[in-house]
Recover the amino acids of this structure.
C-alpha cells in the first residue's frame, strides 16, 4: 500500500523502513544545521525524536533556519520543530527538552538510550561533552563542525575528527578529544576558510540584539556572532541526516557506485 514513505522504500526496502521507524535519535541544537537534519529525518521515516534546545526563534533566524518564519518568531525552536515533525508524520514520537547542553547538566541525559546522537550545537564545551559521553556508552554519534562565515556549500566532507583540516572548530575538537582519550568521532566539516564577518555596528546583534524579550541567552552573551546564509547550514544538516539514515537502515551502497 502506498504511503508517505513509499518513494524512500523504493531505495531502502521495507525492512530498512521498519528499522528507521523503530529508531530513536537525539538532536542537540535545532538551528540552521539541526533544523534541516530534523526535517530530513522526519521525512525519511525516523519514528522517535528527542529535541534539545533552549532558544526561541529570533527574526535574524529567518535567513537560514527551516522552522523560522514571521509566524514562529518568539516560539521555542523545539516546539516548532515538534509541530513540523508531527505534521509530516503523526505517528512519530517526539519529546522536547528546553535545555542548553553543557558539562554541568550533561548527567541529566542518558545518551545510551538512543540509536543515534546528533550534535548541532555551537558551544565547544557542550560538543566535547557529547562526543566523550557517546564514546563512553558506545552510542552512534555525528557532529557538525563550523558552518558560520562560509559560502561554499560544496566544500563539506564526512570524516573522522582526526582526518579533518582547515576548520578552526575541528582543530579545537581534535586537540580536546585527543586529551580525553577519544580515538574516533564522526563529523561533517568544511575545508573552506571562514570569511571575516563585515564590521557593521548598525547590523550587529551585539549592539542591536532583537532576541525575544524573555530569551535567556541573548546575542549579547556571545563572544562573536558569525555571519551565515540559507544554503551552507542547510547542506551540513542534510548531509548529517543522510549519514544517520544510511547507518540506521543498515543500507550499504556498492563501493563502485
Amino acid at each position: 500500500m502506498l504511503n508517505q514513505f513509499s518513494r524512500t522504500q523504493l531505495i531502502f526496502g521495507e525492512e530498512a523502513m521498519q528499522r528507521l521507524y523503530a529508531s530513536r535519535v537525539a538532536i542537540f541544537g535545532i538551528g540552521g544545521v539541526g533544523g534541516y537534519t530534523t526535517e530530513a529525518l522526519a521525512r525519511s521515516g525516523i519514528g522517535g525524536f528527542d529535541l534539545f534546545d533552549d532558544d526561541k526563534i529570533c527574526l535574524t533566524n529567518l535567513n537560514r533556519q527551516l522552522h523560522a518564519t514571521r509566524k514562529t518568531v518568539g516560539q521555542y525552536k523545539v516546539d516548532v520543530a515538534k509541530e513540523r515533525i508531527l505534521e509530516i508524520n503523526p505517528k512519530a514520537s517526539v519529546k522536547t527538552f528546553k535545555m542548553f547542553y553543557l558539562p554541568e547538566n550533561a548527567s541529566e541525559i542518558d545518551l545510551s538510550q538512543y540509536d543515534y546522537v546528533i550534535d548541532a550545537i555551537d558551544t565547544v564545551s557542550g560538543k566535547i561533552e557529547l562526543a566523550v559521553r557517546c564514546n563512553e556508552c558506545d552510542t552512534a554519534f555525528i557532529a557538525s563542525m563550523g558552518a558560520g562565515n562560509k559560502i561554499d556549500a560544496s566544500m563539506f566532507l564526512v570524516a573522522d575528527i582526526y582526518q579533518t583540516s582547515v576548520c578552526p572548530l575541528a582543530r579545537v575538537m581534535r586537540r580536546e578529544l585527543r586529551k580525553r582519550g577519544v580515538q574516533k568521532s564522526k563529523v561533517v566539516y568544511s575545508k573552506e576558510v571562514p570569511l571575516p564577518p563585515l564590521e557593521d555596528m548598525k547590523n550587529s546583534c551585539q549592539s542591536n540584539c532583537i532576541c525575544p524579550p524573555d530569551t535567556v541567552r541573548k546575542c549579547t552573551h556571545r563572544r562573536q556572532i558569525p555571519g551565515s546564509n540559507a544554503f551552507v547550514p542547510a547542506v551540513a544538516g542534510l548531509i548529517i541526516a543522510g549519514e544517520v539514515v544510511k547507518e540506521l537502515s543498515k543500507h550499504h551502497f556498492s563501493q563502485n557506485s
Remarks:
- Helices lie at 6-12, 14-22, 32-43, 77-88, 124-137, 168-179, 232-248.
